[in-house]
Q: What sequence folds into this?
């Protein structure tokens, strides 16, 4: 995600997580499905790895945000 957002409570976090998951699935999930339908095993592997990397990047983004908040105090 490009824009910084403020998460003040659990509900905000839940909404952010849902929107991010939708974005990841729409981008990377489609590529994985297309590769499974039309591609080789290598294409499926690459698409699956890209999906996993997108999820990892999102989790690291959250973790880094949590660390940034603790260092400001």
A:
């Amino acid at each position: 995600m490009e824009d910084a957002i403020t998460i003040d409570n659990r509900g905000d976090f839940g909404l952010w997580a849902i929107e991010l998951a939708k974005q990841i699935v729409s981008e990377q999930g489609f590529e994985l499905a297309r590769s499974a339908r039309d591609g080789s095993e290598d294409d499926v592997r690459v698409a699956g790895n890209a999906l996993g990397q997108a999820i990892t990047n999102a989790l690291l983004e959250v973790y880094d945000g949590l660390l940034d908040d603790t260092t400001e105090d």
Q: What stands out?
A: The mean pLDDT is 85.
